[in-house]
Structure formats: C-alpha cells, structure tokens
Design goal:
CATH topology of chain B: Transcription Regulator spoIIAA
CATH class of the largest domain in chain A: Alpha Beta
Radius of gyration of chain A: 34 Å
CATH superfamily of the largest domain in chain A: Histidine kinase-like ATPase, C-terminal domain
Structural class of chain B: alpha/beta
CATH architecture of the largest domain in chain A: 2-Layer Sandwich
Strand content of chain A: 15-25%
Structural class of chain A: alpha+beta
CATH topology of the largest domain in chain A: Heat Shock Protein 90
Number of domains of chain A: 5
Largest interface: A-B, 24 and 20 residues
Oligomer: heterodimer
Number of domains of chain B: 1
Largest sheet of chain B: 4 strands, mixed
Chain lengths: ~650, ~90
Amino acid sequence: MDELLDQFIVEARELVQAAIDDLLVLEAEPDNAARLDSAFRAVHTLKGSTGLFDLVPLHSALHAAEDNLGRVRSGATRLDAREIDAVCAVLEWFDRCVDDLETRGMVDPRRLGQAGALEEALRGEAEAIDETAPHALAEWALQLAAQIGGHAAVALRYRPHPECFFSGDDPLELVARIPQLLHLSIQNRDPWPAPDLFDPFRSNLEFEVLSAAPFAEVEAIFRLMPDQVEIVALPRGREQQAEPVAGESRADSTRSLRVDPARIDQLLDLVGELITAKNSMASLAAMASALPNGLELARSIAGAQKDLDRLGGALYGSVLQTRMVPLSQAFQRLPRMVRDLSRRLGKPVHLHIEGDTVEADKTIVDELFEPLLHLMRNAMDHGIEPQAERLTAGKPAIARIELVVVSEGDTMSVELRDDGRGIDPALVRATALRKGLVSAEHAATLSERDTLELLFMPGFSTAADVTDLSGRGVGLDAVRTDIARLGGTVSLHSRLGEGTRTILRLPISFAMAQLLVVSVGGERYGVPMQDVVETVRLRHDAITPIRSNRAFVLRNRTVPLLALSDLLGLAEVASDGELTVLVVDFDGQLVGIAVDGVNERIETITRPLNGLLRGMPGMAGTTVLGSGQVLLVLDVTELVG
Amino acid sequence: MSVALGQDAIVLSGNCGAEEAESLLALIQAHPGMAVDIAGVEWVHTALWQILIALGPPVRGVPLHGFIHDWILPLLAHDTSDRRAS
C-alpha cells in the first residue's frame, strides 16, 4: 500500500475519533465553542484528505456533515441529539470505509451505497432548519471568511435569477458596486451545457463575496433582489476568537513520530536479551577469579558488569517509556458506547472521566479496554436503575458513572463508580445457591465482602442471564482473569441503594522480574521468583500419601505436594533419587510443586500472552531468553487453583 | 459595434451589453481556440463574462476598468488554465 494512503488511514482514524469525542462533549455542553470548532475542523480536514484519493461518496457525505456542523457553528441551529446522531453516523460509516481501505485497498461498494441515506439524514434535518431560520448566519459565510481571513464584515452569496438578463440585470455590475471588496468568486450553479446547447441569455452564475464595508451599505445595493442574495454580517472579533482554534483540530496536537509498535517490541526483546546476556558475566567473573592472579581481571569484569547493569536498566526504562500511552486511548470509545447504551436502555447517564492522562504501557492500556467495557455494561445494565425507579428513590434522574484513574507510583488504580442500585448480597447468595456454587451452610457464613466475591466465580453469570448487553455468559470472572494477566487485581465494593465501585489496580508498566527456570517433562518453564517461597529437595520416603494425594512435612507444617507435570498434563519423569520441590505460598497456604529440576535464575521482562497463546490457562506470559528461545512463564496461582 | 472579429482575435470594445452575448457566442463557436481581446472595453455585461467563463477561450488584453482588472481577470485566467488541465 502506498505511503500516502497509509498516512491517510492513520490520520483519518484520529480525526474521526477527535470529531466524535468533540460531538459527545457537545451533546453535554452545546455551547462549547472550542469543541464545536474542533469538530468542524476535523470533519473539514477529513473531507479535504479524501480529495487526495478518488473517494467521491466519502467526500460528499463528509461535505454534508460539515455543512450541518457549519450551520450549528453559525448559530443557525442548535446541536440536538438528532443532529449529533446524523453526523456521528457519517463519521462511523467513514471509519468503516477506512477499515475497508486498510484491509483490501478499496471501499466495499455496498458500503459506498449507504452514503446517500446518510446524507439524506443530514439533509432532512438541514432543510427543516432552513425553513425556520432562512437568514441565519450561514456556514458558507464562515467558511469563506475562514479561508480568506482578513477583516471581512460582510459575506454575500448572490444567485441571480436565471432569467435576470431579460429583466435588465447585470449582476457583476452590482457586485462591482460593493465597496471594500475583499474577495470575489464566481461559480456555475449547474454544470455547463455542451457549447452548442449554451444559452447566452440564461444566467447560470453564483457569486460569493467578502467585504469590509458595513452591512447596510452592501444590503442597499441588493435591496431590489432580496430573494437572490444572502447577506451575512460576520461576527466581530471572530478572528481573535475562532481562528486560533479553527486552525488546529485536536488531532493535530497529538501528531508526533509514528512508530509501528512491533518495532518497539522488537527493541524491547533485544533489551531483554542484552540483560540476559549480561547475566552471564557473573560466571565469567567467577571463572576469572579462579585463575592464577585472576583476581584483578575478575574485579574488572565485575566492574564492567555493573556498568552494563546500569546502562541496561536505563535502556530498558527508556524503551518502556516509548511504550507509555495515556489511558485516554483505552477510554476513547467508552463515551460513544455509554451514549449508545443509554439510548437503548432508556437510562440517561452522565459519564465523567477523570485522570485519563495517566500513562501506562501500551499493552496494559490496550488490554484494559475489554474489561472496562464489560464493567461499564454491567453498570449500565444491572447497576443503573430505570429512571422511574431512581425518581422514586429520590435520586437524580440522570445517573452518573465515574471513571477515575489515579496514578500511584508504579501502579495505578482505575475506579469505576456508579450511583445505581448497588448489589444486594442476599440476591447474590441466592443466585450462587441456585447455581450450586456454594452450599447453604457456607452461604450463611459469608460476610458481605465475601458474598461479593461470589460474583467473580466462573459460572456465576450464565447463559440464563444473557441480555443483549452484558450477557454471553462472560462474567466478572473474565474481568478478573484479564486484569490478573496484566498483573493487576479487581475489587468490588457496593452499598445497597447507593451504588457500586469497581477498583482495578494495575501496574503501569511491565517490571523486570526474576524468574526461576525449571524443567519438567523435558520442557522448560519460567516461574516468577516472587511466587516461590523456597525450593527444597525431598527424598521419596519423606512423602506421605494421603488418599489419592501426597504431602510432606516442612518445618512441622504439612504441605500438600503437587507435580507440575500433572498440572501441565505432561508425562512425569520417573526419578529414583530426590525430588525437587518449589514451595509456593497460595493465599497463606503453602503448596509444594514437584519439578524435574531447577536450572537457573534470570532477570527478564515477562509479557502477557497474546495471539494464539492468549487465554491459555496457567500461563502468565512469555519471555525471550538470551538464546532467542521463547520461555513460557507459569501463573502458579492459576495452575494450582 | 462592440463585438467584432479582428484579424487573429475576437475583439470586444467599448460598452458591451447583454444583447451582444449571442454574437460573442456565435463567434467563439465559429472560431474555436481564437483569443478574445478585451483590451478596449469599458464595461462588459455579465452575460458575456458568463460565456467567457463557460467556454474558456483564451482572453487577452488588460482593460482600464479597475474592477475587471482586479477581480474578473484573475478568475478568467484561473478558469482557462483549469480547462486546459482537464
């Protein structure tokens, strides 16, 4: 694909998003002139960029959308929900056209066919508006003034009647009388006919004029033909207020060097390998010190290793820094979605987002979208009450959902609050009982906090609860799994009748972690050091069978023993000597995991699974070894649990 | 006569009214590609400008009228170059 088109695709996406963001803000704040200008400018720029390619229907639909926004901008109409819908529909359609362009280099002809209907939606409204405000400040006038600049006070569009030559009019003679002319353009109203069909006595011209003269003077010249001219007094001080904003859409401010994330990942892999390679210097130093008179050499190597440590760490930090993106990237689609849900459910909601400038690693930000979407749907579907119920409860009719990010050093909290009905612990207990997730005795002993934990159990939300919105049998357990994969936690707090808070705590970046490389069944896996309390060697006779299970005694505690080969479904390598056992702390309970051997410790970066590996149970992520080999890193908690 | 056929151009002169649109059109159609010389015009009616804009013959000569010079000629020049390009 050629570069121009690539660039167009990237920019078009940004502009569409910027415009939609603006429109959604405008829906809540119809008087936000800066956002209106920004939306208008984004649509205008989009329209312009389609001109580079042969995308006529796209151009024309955007043009119509621009007209509508222009009318709002000029004060001729208010931006109501219908108007926003119509413009958003064009933008979303355009977004899909861009998808088409990206995936197959052309827009699906069926999609192109939708342009007409979209434009009709825009125009339908536009015509109704024209009737109510025939002489309002028009979009063309502002656009003209914006293009030409200067100190125009009056914009004029003159469409002489086709038969005007017969009545003795000389339109250009009238135009020539306009004082302080700043701009004149002449266009044909209809396409020119073939030269032999040309009617010299029929006017087919249209004039657009800007003048610095007072409105009254210009109006006086055309007083005999009010039906053929639109004269617009341009707002004073327009250039001071509107132009700086109009010159820059919000997408411009985000422009910077674009780098394919894959290249950054490659860099990160290399840094990881560098750090792993550096680890081998420790054994070099040890070897050197064993040489006769090798102590000095060993010291030098150790010194060099220290330098490499520092540089490697700094390099790692810098590369990670390039992957940091603001959370707003994960949030940007949420307002659209909330708006859409709010309509479909008939529950008016105000979404308040705070702290979305906090930055986190791109993978974390990307992966955050789905869990957030799910939580947001839950809030809209289950949390927020229907309006009537809210009013009865003495709550504001418009519900409030807040999404608040707080940076906490290396971690951040992402909190979603709603002021809905909260979660009824009794209902949760009853549901869990009905689904057989807990026994009646157990349910009776659960604290309120533990009861909410039931919501995270797989199977709590089942197909029976599937609604159009938050169903599909994927419940909070999926959210927790997603967040845990990113190294985060989810907690739920609720007050009946007052609302629900879901707090996600996440790292902002992937820290360098110590891994223990273990071998089992002829394969090698990484185990995060933080999970391992200690490693012990056990003789076979120290293992006590307990029914079908096994256990051993460690410092007077009985510790259940599992085999990693069983957990992974691998063949157990029979060993006649001692067993190597990793002792892990599993919520305060020690568990032993037998492995075939412990190879080495490495310091490396673990990255969450993606692609085909994603969702593989018991795996925390992958890391690249110095040899280039990919090592799967185990999620011990998930494996054992 | 303010619309006439000269040696190598169609010549407009003096005050050209709307009634002369037909003869200008006929001359341009009869002599495709021939230039239209407007150096000697005082004023030209919109109907004639419309023909020059629509058919785009080469236009030459700089009339004295300030409005024509400042505002109409640039449009014609622009228009003719567009036509050639397409």
